[in-house]
Design a protein that fits this description.
This protein has about 170 residues and is of the alpha+beta class. The chain contains 3 helices and 9 strands. The two termini are about 15 Å apart.
Length: about 170
C-alpha cells in the first residue's frame, strides 16, 4: 500500500486570485482591507503598505534572501531588508499579520503595481520555503510513523510529489 502526498505551492492559487482582484484583493485575501498611501505627491517618498498572513519570520527572512534581498534582519516580530532599490520593513501585528512597508531608496514614488509584484514574488518564495520545511518534516518522521519514502519528484511548477509505502511489520 502506498500514499501519495502532493505539496502544491500556495502561491499558484494566490497569484491567480491576485491577478483577478488586484491590490485590494491581496488585502482582502489577507483578512484585512487596509492599504495606506500617503497623499503627498512630489519629491517626497510615497510609502505603500500591504498586509499578508505569512507566519514564520525565519522562513520569511529566507524567502526575502531567495528573491535577492540584502541586509536581511529578522528580530522577533520585525524584519527589515533592502531589495531592488527599496527598503522593506515588516512588522507582525498581535493578530499574527505581517505588515510590509515598502519605500524607494531614491525618494521617488513607489507604484502600487510594483508593490503588488514584489508581494507576489515574496509570496511564491515563502510558499516554496514552507513546502520545503513540510517535506523535510515528512522525510524525517516517515520512518517513525510507519512509512517508507519510496520516491520524490518535483515538477516544473515546483509541485512536490512524495510516495510513501506503509511498512509491513508482519
Amino acid at each position: 500500500m502506498s500514499v501519495s502526498l502532493i505539496l502544491i505551492p500556495a502561491a499558484i492559487a494566490a497569484v491567480t486570485a491576485i491577478s483577478a482582484t488586484g491590490v485590494g484583493g491581496i488585502l482582502s485575501l489577507g483578512g484585512r482591507s487596509e492599504a495606506k498611501e500617503s497623499s503627498d505627491v512630489g519629491d517626497a517618498a510615497r510609502p505603500v503598505a500591504v498586509q499578508t498572513r505569512m507566519k514564520d519570520p525565519e522562513l520569511l527572512g529566507d524567502a526575502l534572501r531567495d528573491i535577492g534581498a540584502l541586509n536581511v534582519s529578522v528580530t522577533g516580530d520585525g524584519i527589515s531588508a533592502e531589495l531592488d532599490e527599496l527598503t522593506i520593513t515588516m512588522t507582525r501585528t498581535p493578530e499574527g499579520i505581517w505588515a510590509a512597508h515598502l519605500e524607494r531608496l531614491d525618494g521617488h514614488e513607489l507604484a502600487a503595481s510594483d508593490a503588488t509584484a514584489l508581494v507576489q514574488r515574496l509570496d511564491a518564495a515563502y510558499a516554496l520555503r514552507v513546502q520545503q520545511a513540510v517535506a523535510e518534516r515528512i522525510r524525517s518522521r516517515a520512518d517513525t510513523a510507519g512509512f517508507e519514502l519510496v520516491s520524490e519528484t518535483r515538477d516544473e511548477d515546483d509541485t512536490l510529489t512524495m510516495v510513501l509505502n506503509v511498512k509491513d511489520y508482519a
